Amino acid sequence: MLVDFFTRLLYCRGKWICFILFYKYGNKPCSIQLWPEETIIKIVTTVKEMQARSESIRNQEKKIAFVPTMGFLHDGHCSLLRKGRLSCDDLVLSIFVNPTQFSAGEDYDSYPRDLEKDLQLAEKEGVDTVFTPTKEELFGKNFQTGIELTKLPRHLCGLSRPSHFQGVALVVTKLFNIVKPHVAIFGEKDFQQLAIIRQMARDLDFDIRIEGGAIVREADGLAMSSRNTYLSSEQRKAALCLYNTLQKSKKMVEQGEKNSSNIINEMTIFIHRHKETQIDYISICDPETLDDIDSINGPVLMALAVKVGKTRLIDNMILSP
Ligand code: AMP
Predict the structure, then answer these.
(1) Is residue 18 predicted with pLDDT exceeding 50?
(2) Domain span at residue 179?
(3) Beta-strand (E) ranges in 33-89?
């Protein structure tokens, strides 16, 4: 009981050691409640325990909302947690840097991680359970199953990251089977990812409501991203060209420009004026199919990916005439 109390006290002070102690002792029954149970997040690292916990919550007729992330949380992630908190009894956050969505040469090893800070933010946002498995726990030695969508991944980010969405679809499917949520929330920042997960949920009859959350931006407009931390101060200034491109294009469309090529050509010149930028793609496309649109006669998705230095950034916006 004493250990339980000190564990919880230390955790609330944000000490890392608490994670280890709480993980070890947090489950032990405690006869006198010295700390209110609802302020303590449950940290789960195994598939079996997560499944058992979700099963028990479902058996109590409670609704589970789920926000999958790769951690290094910022306000974009937190906005999804807040949305989830409103629509459920039990809120689950997963933190897992998914190796299957990175290709060789990408930033899997260097991807920013800070579990202690993530747990503090999760607690602040009222998360009930953090599921944070190891890669061995999710993808054991003899793993051999894949999931592939035939159309949506052949656009936008899928062109330069050909196996990325297979990795995303696979891990999300596994997480759905483990967390068993009623609602899952994804950010519109990764518009193509959200479209793919919606499609997959329909195709595979997942009994899960997929919700989108609006892009959260820094004060100057840069879309929040865990990868923004890679940017030097010069690169941070240049990175603003993504948001400015979207704003300028929005204005062009509102002022009557219908020709997608005219906008893309002008924006290509604009982006290249910024230091260390390299365009991966600029696309004006159908928000459902992601097929290119040449002539703008209704709402379209403008999406772009630009490397600033070595950091690949994405952003998007719906443009309406
Ligand atoms: P990540 O940790 O980058 O895999 O992102 C986890 C979830 O947070 C995904 O559904 C992202 O689309 C979402 N997300 C990331 N950045 C933002 C943002 N700036 N605004 C809203 N959602 C975001």
Answers:
(1) no
(2) 41-213
(3) 42-44, 64-69
